[in-house]
Amino acid sequence: MEHSRRKFLAGLAATTMFATVGVAGTTVIQTITVDGKRYAMIHDETLCIGCEACVDACRETNNVPEGVSRLEIIRSEPRGEFPDADYKFFRKSCQHCEDAPCVNVCPTGASFIDTETGIVDVDPDRCVGCMYCIAACPYKVRYIDPVTKSADKCDFCRKTNLAKGQLPACVQVCPTQALIFGDLNDPNSDIVQTLQQKTVYRYKKHLGTKPKMFRVPDLKGEIEL
Amino acid sequence: MRQLQRTLIFTFISLCLLSQPGFANSSASGAAPTRVVVEPSFSLQTANDKEMEKLLKENKRCIRCHKVKRKLKNIAAMKMQGAHASEEFYNNCTACHGDKGKHPKNGSTIINFSVQSPTPLKQQNGQCIACHTPAELRQAEWTHDVHYKKINCSSCHQLHEPVDPVININRTARIKLCIDCHSSVDKPQGDQ
Ligand code: SF4
Ligand code: SF4
Ligand code: SF4
Predict the structure, then answer these.
(1) In degrees rounded to 5, what are phi and psi of residue B47?
(2) Is residue A213 lining ligand 1, measured as CB closer than 6 Å?
């Protein structure tokens, strides 16, 4: 216990460091869940090549039916002219908000934040399909699964790969290591180390949802913070 | 004098007309007019019968040697099929490869399409976009935009085949192509 407490304090020190220099901001400190992990993800837009291997791996691993998707890679319009044109890629998926509107509006408690991992998930047995969460999510990442008729979205592979002790499918398959997954409470994790080294932004951070999806901006174009 | 003036005016007007298509093309795409885009028609290569005669002669010279396997250097027999073949011009090797020149002796100027080719990358790919416009390429596949300056077209495309195998590959095969080249040696990042 003592050990993990020390580790936590060390983590606090580490996060303070990047809170003062990075976009991660002071919210990280205020919202720490003391008794669990805080899983988060980085999408490094400077490394992403837009291959969509992640999209297909997610569908396969999590049995996502055709017609809906937990994850999309949105390609920008071309920047510049041939032969120097290039593109920017944006990952559209659940941000695992720490102050999650989808959870706040859910009348049945089907949408919940898992206290052990910080993952926002849905219990399909409790979901009545009212679609309040779909309307409430500012990131527009939720859908009704045509098979289970329950609301669904990215769960960081909580019920599949994570349960088997593996990294999320999208992270595993990404050829360029553009995706980094890990525990924000662990100062030695790849994700915290990377957050200390790279400048990141979070999409629609101003809404106060405290999203845990960090992005390394591809600075050749403007970014929407 | 008057006759000369008339001729000059006529020449000027025809020159303006001639330069029209190229001009219209480049301004329509919104790009700086870097190159005149040629119609993808082989017949544009020849302006008169004499040139046509030379073209046929050049192409026959290619085929004379390349229709059979060259055993010593193990060069496969060449057969031109599919979209780039042209019966009218005896396969029209020269349209892409250039004239025979000194080939196969040293100092050859033949344009060769491969990674190992002594032909510079820019020249190899330049041959392709003489017919395939950047706009068409982008519409067919956005990745043309980001690979054009980096790898030669023939890394992905096979141009002597009846159908280029890379065209209309399925989604999974396409993703695999990306991964085959882009995979870094590092293992996935993250911790449980
Ligand atoms: S991104 Fe949307 S679905 Fe995910 S936690 Fe935030 S509000 Fe909920
Ligand atoms: S973490 Fe899992 S569920 Fe979420 S997008 Fe990646 S593969 Fe899909
Ligand atoms: S697999 Fe990686 S590189 Fe490919 S689109 Fe997804 S995040 Fe980008």
Answers:
(1) -100, -25
(2) no
